[in-house]
Amino acid sequence: MKLYHIIDTKTVTAILCTYKGHILTTQRKDGRWSLPKGHRKIGEDLITAALRELAEETDIRPDPDDLSYLGAMSHPRRNTPVHLYHTELPNPIIPILNDEHVDYRWCTYDQLLAMQKSEPIDITLATAYERYHAPA
What we know:
single chain; alpha+beta; Nucleoside Triphosphate Pyrophosphohydrolase; 7-stranded mixed sheet; 7 strands
């Protein structure tokens, strides 16, 4: 019997989707802008969990070979590890949002910084983008 329906609440995965310098952000019902992310289920590896969450929340399904690992961070509000991935999409896909989200935007990092002045931005979004652009 598979145990994929049981959530490992201690681990979160997220994917930063970009297209030519633009970031896909999704807005949760509480107003926060974030990355598509969620909890890993028992029995899933991190990449499988990240891809499942992205597909569940946006219906975007990148090739697993196109993901790069940006590292882990500790979410300050929940004190849980968040494993961050990146994928460059071939076009600015219009996501099909699930019921956890009310809106989406493709924005540049400068637009994201401007949004942060008036709208709540989840720390994982900013951290993932900063790591994506960090010098090697």
